[in-house]
Amino acid sequence: MRVVSFFAGAGGLDLGFQQAGFNVIWANEYDKEIWETYEKNHPHTILDKRSIVNIPADEVPECDGIIGGPPCQSWSEAGAARGIKDKRGQLFYDFIRILEAKQPQFFLAENVSGMLINKHSEALEGIKELFRNAGVGYELSFKMLNACDYNVPQDRKRVFFIGIRKDLNFKYEFPTQTFPKITLETAISDLKEGALPALEYNNSNGENCVVPNHEYMIGSFSTIFMSRNRVRSWDEQSYTIQAGGRHAPIHPQAPKMKFIEKNIRVFVPGQEHLYRRLSVRECARIQTFPNDFIFHYKKIAAGYKMIGNAVPVNLAKFLANSIMQQLKSNEMNKKVVILEQNEKEAITA
């Protein structure tokens, strides 16, 4: 089945769909810092580099599905939470514009859990209604999922809109299956050695990394970062991998940060040398990117951004598999009904 992808980023969502058997034929990404990474890791997908705002619907290939994660910063609880009033939040409308024109069998849109806060309730209901009424209309399913339940070693709550075109006569059901939690020990313990600090001004070490992308951001930690414990132990799962390297979790080799008073913690005295940020490669592992998926950048911040903005590959694959199975099951049921009708007509003839 042919899929097109918007706001593709490095392509975590796309890779999950490819692993589930979909053919991602075309993708769109506007951020030039990402283009090399996407093209080298998705050599069989055409990459459109325009803003979605400037893409006429008739220039998007015919497809069976449209997937994507419109930029989430404007919906974030940690940010300004301006939602649909922000230009980035309004990109949902262009995603729906393309959906309405192409009328694929299904769509999937992903966003941050901050969409669910009360101040966005009216805008969220409006978006749902636009999805339901796009073209001939879609049966919409909506749910918040935590990636930690789907073979991802990370607490990461995100919301998913999944729609099935109404003429297919069924509604997508989110699977109830979950999986045992994967720990940091399982995910990244083989990367304990060899991580390099970034070069001056947080430039990349490039080919000097023995393990590709196994380098970490240097520099001070903000008071906001130091207001909470940022260390998860080896037998736990990671905190959410964010798009900013300065906010990357601390490597589990370090002890939990010491509480001083409300909103103030410090690194355990005498153990400060153990507190480093997770490397770009460690973050990629936690986002379940495979080892041969190489991120290309000059500034290390760009590596963290690509990874933190991605949908974890394993979660994407799980959802893609379930969509594929439900579409095939529905098609099979239709064939059975037609066969039964033909048999009845033959008997009565």
Automatic annotation (TrEMBL):
<dbReference type="GO" id="GO:0044027">
    <property type="term" value="P:negative regulation of gene expression via chromosomal CpG island methylation"/>
</dbReference>
<dbReference type="GO" id="GO:0032259">
    <property type="term" value="P:methylation"/>
</dbReference>
<keyword id="KW-0808">Transferase</keyword>
<keyword id="KW-0680">Restriction system</keyword>
<dbReference type="InterPro" id="IPR031303">
    <property type="entry name" value="C5_meth_CS"/>
</dbReference>
<keyword id="KW-0949">S-adenosyl-L-methionine</keyword>
<dbReference type="InterPro" id="IPR018117">
    <property type="entry name" value="C5_DNA_meth_AS"/>
</dbReference>
<keyword id="KW-0489">Methyltransferase</keyword>
<protein>
    <recommendedName>
        <fullName>Cytosine-specific methyltransferase</fullName>
        <ecNumber>2.1.1.37</ecNumber>
    </recommendedName>
</protein>
<dbReference type="GO" id="GO:0003677">
    <property type="term" value="F:DNA binding"/>
</dbReference>
<dbReference type="InterPro" id="IPR050390">
    <property type="entry name" value="C5-Methyltransferase"/>
</dbReference>
<feature type="active site">
    <location>
        <position position="72"/>
    </location>
</feature>
<dbReference type="InterPro" id="IPR001525">
    <property type="entry name" value="C5_MeTfrase"/>
</dbReference>
<comment type="similarity">
    <text>Belongs to the class I-like SAM-binding methyltransferase superfamily. C5-methyltransferase family.</text>
</comment>
<dbReference type="Pfam" id="PF00145">
    <property type="entry name" value="DNA_methylase"/>
</dbReference>
<dbReference type="InterPro" id="IPR029063">
    <property type="entry name" value="SAM-dependent_MTases_sf"/>
</dbReference>
<dbReference type="GO" id="GO:0003886">
    <property type="term" value="F:DNA (cytosine-5-)-methyltransferase activity"/>
</dbReference>
<dbReference type="GO" id="GO:0009307">
    <property type="term" value="P:DNA restriction-modification system"/>
</dbReference>
